[in-house]
Amino acid sequence: MHHHAYLWTGPNARFDQEALRRPPHAEPPPPGSSPGLVQRHRAASAEFPTSPLPPLETAHWLLKPPSLVRGTWSEPSAAGAWLGERLAEYAGRFASPAPCEGVRLAALVGSARERLAAGGDVSLGFHLERPAFLSLALVTCAPDRARPDLPCPLRG
Length: 156
Known about the structure:
By secondary structure, the chain is an alpha+beta fold. About 30% of the residues lie in helices and about 20% in strands. It has helices at about 10-15, 35-45, 75-90, 100-115, and strands at about 1-10, 70-75, 120-130, 130-140. It has a 4-stranded antiparallel β-sheet. The longest helix has 16 residues, at about 100-115.
């Protein structure tokens, strides 16, 4: 078992486009479907597999390109350290100071380590200044507890 890290920052409006944060349905819309439904399926099919936009389900990061992996660790403590470093890095940009307070930061990192050690995933999101959003995720891989059917993005 190992853990992959993912990070995304971007406009709140982009993050709010939930249709692009879901993998496309395996079957295209049936003939005679509304043009809007057909267009949404096409957009999701084209966008989701390559977009750095965070998926709605944390485990679906594993469906994204390997180039989006920001780090991989076999130890939950190392993955938690990466998370703590990113939170400290972005602390000055948080719209609210609460997430970056020392005690809260330590609690977030400690909780993430515990969840990873138990085979779970971690997904955190924070509003930043200039309306932007920060998404951080640590996904347990080989296998993911929530989605054991998903392959590791770094293995052929």
